[in-house]
């Protein structure tokens, strides 16, 4: 007789429901949270008590993706994040995003586990809203508000430094033929760092869109924003790639570097990227 392939998942579901039913009436169930994405890892570690964290995502310890990689080593990881692996940690709450696999979310809900899905993360305001959303689940409202207040103070201080400074005209090149326009984390980054995103203002692009190569050659690009820690290495893929190889900024090495984990950061850690970019674009105000 063939054993159904999904039997292990179903067995975990059954055990979770039995164990949950055995909880004495009136006794609050301790919060145990599993995070399925890097963004939710960062939110969770900012707000939760250690005993509330059951496991983090499989990317949590990778410095190229995570702003909390060093802190994440203290906690288990969920591997690739299938339902069976997640349920083994007996979570009462699982954190997902709107790009998480639909079948995974369905399986978790069928197992009786509460799933919190983060759907907006392109702006700093979205980051604050997500902090508050998770804080309500954890009973950490005061901690969230204190963190947001510190973030707002940093943003205000940066805004004051950049006041009156003309924005530096930039693009974020890509070897995949796409560049960011408006309604992107890069647009948010530029708006806070004294930069003008030419993909938005001259390309009139929405979201991540196909690069208008012929038009881009005429754009007045002051600098390109690239990921990495070594300028020449970061620029190398673009020196022979159309349209970037025709741009004076690329030929002359006018590039600013952003740490890989910050380039598309979706949490409050994006403020690190604001400051990192602003320091390179406007060094004179940081002396």
Summarize the structure in words.
The protein has 287 residues and is of the alpha/beta class. The protein folds into two domains: 112 residues, Nitrogenase molybdenum iron protein domain (Rossmann fold), CATH 3.40.50; 118 residues, Rossmann fold (3-Layer(aba) Sandwich), CATH 3.40.50. The strands form three sheets. It has a four-stranded parallel beta sheet with strand order 2-1-3-4, sandwiched between helices. The protein has a four-stranded parallel beta sheet with strand order 7-5-9-10. The protein has a two-stranded antiparallel sheet with strand order 6-8. Strand 1, helix 2 and strand 2 form a beta-alpha-beta unit. Helix 6 packs antiparallel against helix 7, helix 7 packs parallel to helix 14 and helix 8 packs across helix 14. The longest helix is centred in the middle third of the chain and has 22 residues.
Please summarize what this structure is.
By secondary structure, this protein is of the alpha/beta class. The chain is 43% helix and 13% strand.
């Amino acid at each position: 007789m063939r054993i159904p392939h999904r039997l292990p998942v179903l067995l975990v579901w059954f055990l979770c429901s039995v164990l949950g039913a055995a909880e004495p009436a009136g006794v609050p169930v301790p919060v145990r949270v599993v995070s399925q994405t890097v963004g939710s890892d960062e939110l969770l570690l900012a707000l939760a008590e250690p005993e509330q964290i059951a496991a983090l995502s499989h990317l949590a310890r990778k410095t190229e993706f995570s702003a909390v990689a060093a802190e994440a080593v203290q906690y288990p990881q969920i591997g690739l994040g299938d339902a069976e692996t997640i349920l083994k940690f007996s979570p009462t709450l699982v954190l997902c995003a709107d790009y998480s696999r639909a079948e995974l979310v369905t399986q978790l809900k069928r197992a009786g586990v509460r799933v919190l899905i983060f759907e907006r993360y392109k702006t700093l305001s979205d980051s604050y809203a997500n902090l508050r959303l998770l804080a309500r689940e954890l009973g950490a409202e005061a901690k969230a508000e204190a963190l947001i207040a510190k973030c707002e103070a940093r943003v205000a201080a940066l805004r004051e430094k950049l006041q009156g400074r003309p924005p530096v005209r930039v693009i974020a090149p890509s070897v995949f033929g796409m560049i960011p326009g408006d309604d992107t984390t890069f647009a948010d980054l530029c708006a806070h760092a004294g930069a003008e995103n030419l993909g938005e203002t001259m390309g009139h692009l929405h979201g991540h869109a196909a690069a208008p190569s012929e038009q881009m050659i005429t754009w007045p690009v002051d600098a390109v924003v690239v990921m990495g820690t070594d300028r020449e290495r970061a620029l190398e893929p673009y020196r022979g790639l159309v349209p970037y190889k025709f741009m004076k900024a690329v030929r002359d090495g006018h590039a600013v570097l952003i740490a890989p984990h910050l380039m598309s950061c979706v949490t409050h850690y994006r403020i690190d990227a604001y400051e990192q970019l602003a320091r390179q674009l406007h060094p004179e105000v940081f002396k």
